[in-house]
């Protein structure tokens, strides 16, 4: 497993009205997409503003790319800000043309005019705003403003993209297009993303991992073993290519970009490679074992993170402990499109 790109510890922030955000531990792995869900007022925007350093938290330790981030060290804050881009909700644009808005960050980074032109045109076409270059940014509709702000952020190809309700003001006709623009750019550039949304279906479409906020607290993680990938045909049957170069056999009939999930109950655990008809086998190390009611939950680091449920009897019978290398085996039919 790669090192985290960002780790935040003991984060807390209070507003005068009494709201308090408390997140003990928040870890982002490179290239992964996280969705923050939760009702209005649960703290999604506050958390994103803090991650984007727009709001200085009252307390909290950041570790970015393995190095502690010191808020008083201008150079390290600047470095972080170049790699981490937030698109606010509502989006805010500079008082100039659409072109200048999208080009702004590229110019700051010293890109040539020719390259800037190409990248801006490409980004605007992706958000359906070709021909808007000379329009004044403050004379756009809410949805258009949102789309320009998204183009301005994505064109910078940040390592971490923070999106606050990116389709909140966008006409339904454009939502799918915007979601795929974000997905494509993310995949091409291996960007890490945190996207807030109050729509649970959108969270599952856009993210590998869904986190829930309630009253400023992070709830337990959402469904496990959810991956985004591309399904394609192969002589041995359909395969899905997911993060980390892994390929899993599936029986899904769909092709192309999809979210797949493997139920933690459909995974068999063994100490040696099983010879069975199950098509998928991954070797990994048990990173955590926890008791959940009548079963044991194993967290397996197999290059991808897998959650496995096994019975207490199997756990005892296999004599497993944290740190053991085991095989996780599951059928092609267990790899389901969600
Ligand atoms: P969400 O994005 O999930 O809707 P917010 O982070 O915007 O939640 O808000 C969380 C809580 O903090 C709400 O009760 C909101 O009224 C309050 N709040 C947000 N921003 C401020 C602010 N700048 N000053 C005071 N209170 C705020
Ligand atoms: Mg909000």
Low-confidence stretches: none
Average pLDDT metric: 92
Helix content: 25-40%
In the CATH scheme, the class of the largest domain would be Alpha Beta
CATH superfamily of the largest domain: P-loop containing nucleotide triphosphate hydrolases
The CATH architecture of the largest domain can be given as 3-Layer(aba) Sandwich
Bound molecules: adenosine-5'-diphosphate, magnesium ion
CATH topology of the largest domain: Rossmann fold
| Category from helices, strands and their pairing | alpha+beta
Could you give a quick summary of the protein structure above?
With 338 residues, the chain is an alpha+beta fold. The chain is built from eight helices and 20 strands. The chain has helices spanning 44-51, 74-83, 98-108, 113-126, 142-154, 172-189, 200-206, 312-318; strands at residues 6-14, 20-28, 33-37, 59-64, 67-69, 84-87, 160-164, 192-196, 209-214, 217-218, 226-232, 239-242, 247-249, 256-262, 268-270, 280-292, 295-301, 305-311, 325-330, 335-337.
């Amino acid at each position: 497993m790669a090192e985290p790109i960002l780790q935040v510890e003991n984060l807390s922030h209070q507003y005068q009205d009494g709201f308090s955000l408390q997140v003990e531990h928040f870890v982002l792995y490179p290239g992964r997409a996280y969705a923050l869900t939760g009702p209005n007022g649960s703290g999604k925007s506050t958390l994103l503003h803090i991650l984007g350093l727009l709001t200085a938290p009252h307390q909290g330790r950041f570790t970015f790319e393995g190095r502690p981030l010191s808020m008083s060290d201008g150079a390290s804050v600047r470095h972080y800000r170049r790699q981490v881009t937030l698109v606010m909700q509502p989006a805010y644009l500079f008082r100039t043309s659409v072109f200048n808005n999208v080009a702004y960050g590229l110019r700051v980074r010293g890109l040539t005019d020719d390259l800037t032109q190409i990248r801006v045109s490409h980004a605007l076409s992706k958000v359906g705003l070709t021909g808007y270059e000379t329009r004044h940014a403050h004379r756009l509709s809410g949805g258009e403003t949102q789309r320009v702000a998204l183009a301005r952020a994505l064109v910078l190809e940040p390592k971490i993209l923070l999106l606050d309700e990116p389709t909140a003001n966008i006409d339904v006709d454009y939502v799918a297009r915007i979601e795929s623009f974000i997905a494509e750019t993310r995949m091409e550039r291996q960007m890490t993303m945190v996207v807030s949304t109050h729509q649970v279906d959108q969270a599952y479409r856009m993210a590998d991992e869904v986190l829930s906020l309630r009253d400023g607290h992070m709830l337990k993680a959402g469904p496990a073993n959810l991956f985004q990938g591309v399904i394609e045909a192969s002589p041995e049957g359909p395969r899905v290519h997911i993060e980390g170069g892994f390929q899993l056999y599936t029986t899904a009939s769909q092709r192309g970009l999809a979210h797949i999930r493997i139920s933690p109950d459909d995974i068999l655990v063994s100490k040696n490679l099983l010879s069975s008809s199950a098509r998928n086998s991954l070797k990994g190390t048990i990173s955590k074992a926890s008791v959940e009611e009548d079963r044991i939950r194993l967290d397996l680091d197999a290059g991808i993170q897998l959650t496995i449920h096994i019975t207490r009897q199997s756990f005892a019978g296999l004599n497993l402990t944290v740190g053991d290398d085991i095989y996780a085996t599951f059928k092609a039919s267990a790899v389901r499109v969600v």
